[in-house]
Amino acid sequence: MQEEVSPSVLLVEPFYGGSHKQLMDLLRENVHGCVAFTLPAKKWHWRARTAALHFMQSIPASASYRVLFASSVLNLCELVSLRPDLSPLKKVLYFHENQLAYPVRKDQQRDFQYGYNQVLSCLVADVVVFNSLYNMESFLSSISSFMKRMPDHRPKDLDQLIRPKCQVLHFPLQLPDVTRFLPKHKLLPRPVGPSHSDDITEPQQQQQQHGPLSPGPQHQDLDLQGPHESRAEQRDLDLQGPHESRAGQGDLDLQGPHESRAEQRDLDLQGPHESRAGQGDLDLQGPHESRAEQRELDLQGPHESRAEQRELDLQGPHESRAEQRDLDLQGPHESRGAEEKEEGHMKPLHIVWPHRWEHDKDPELLFSTLLKLKERSLDFHVSVLGETFTDVPEIFPEARRRLDRHILHWGFLPSKDDFLSVLCQADVVVSTARHEFFGVAMLEAVHCGCFPLCPKALVYPEIFPAEYLYATPEQLCKRLQTLCRRPDVARRHKVKVDVSAYSWSSLGRSYQRLLAT
After folding, report:
1. Pairwise CA distance, residues 500 & 491, whole Å
2. Buried b vs exposed e over 322-336: b needs ≥16 C-beta within 10 Å?
3. Residues 140, 277: Cα–Cα separation, whole Å
4. Taking a C-beta distance cutoff of 8 angstroms, is the pair 82, 57 a contact?
5. Model-wide pTM > 0.85
6. How far apart are CA 133 and CA 279, in angstroms?
7. Hey, which of 11, 153, 246, 285 would disulfide with 237, CB 3.0 to 4.6 Å?
8. Are the C-beta atoms of residues 33 and 9 closer than 8 Å to each other?
């Protein structure tokens, strides 16, 4: 009979759902001697207020405990005061999110108690771990101003007491083999060099408006653009109307004969097979599709109809030749690689939004953008996934009604395989978050071959190169508009994010050392 091992690591999670649940399960399965005590992921505010009292009674006393690991939802200060036997343990506090940088509609609505509890928990913890540098710095840098909300007798320099305990340890992802879910075009080799993703890269003018980007390999795509491309993008911005963000419009007919001849030369260099492959999408459309496409163009103003041509013409000969090389490497059965046919034409762009249905994820921005695409007669599919809790924003039922014919999947998928399958079928994953300290779902989607579009804010610049970031709602709309017209851009692009760096296989040993006595 095997002797039962006494637990040495006490895992405490007051909000056992989402990424909090994923981390608890990973630690329990992969770190020796763990025992977990949890509460269901409901009524977050009450969990933060009262969980310590619950765990005081539910955690049995044991002389074998050596480490206490808890998320920052728990008021650790209260728990160790109520349970003095837990105070001598190595106390590790893990921040999935912090309440000092959590968005609220108005600052007056910010409940002081939640942030205050987290500060107290940090003071009694031995080690404070954040899932990202953004999470850590936004918390520590906000403590001083946060404490100024106290009417008097304000404590000073608390951040200096807490910072020496702090470290960043990214959230560890489980990255299962998703090959069986991937469509054919995602199994094909993708080009590593220049690609059509440059068509939706943020103009350099926007970098100047929103501040310089930090140097690093993630910005090489922008740095490699020559002055011709920069001036072309600037001309786009200068011709926008006053009501539209200069970041998000910029598709105007400024091409001259120089650009037209360059594009023609690229076409002339293609062999007959490539020419026919590119023409095939049009040839296979019936008269209804042809007329529908023409009507869409007729409804566009002269700027919009020429804008699509403009996006292609802005590519220099270097990019055109790079794309041609990619085509030349493909076999005859893989013409244009990513262009899978559905009923005689390219499949519509499939956009996925895999986030919690709450206001801090800004679903209003998502749906307003999708409705603009619909108004412009652009074809796309959308899958709106993610968990729902007590209060679902009112925008969801209205958006479902208005976007009905575009919707492929709607609502939470409890099966992980079903969730991964949808991500694998999608082309683009979008975040519209106003609050994000790591972004598990975005990285999972990239693992499944999706092209990411994220805000140029929060944690995203820490993880994603600049070409995947948008600075304004207008930029998001423009990039999705471009991809709706050219879904092959997303399907053929190799995302420049090493997701494996955030996997348990890469981070597991660091967590094991963290929980060692």
Report:
1. 20
2. bbbebbeebeeebeb
3. 56
4. no
5. no
6. 48
7. 246
8. yes
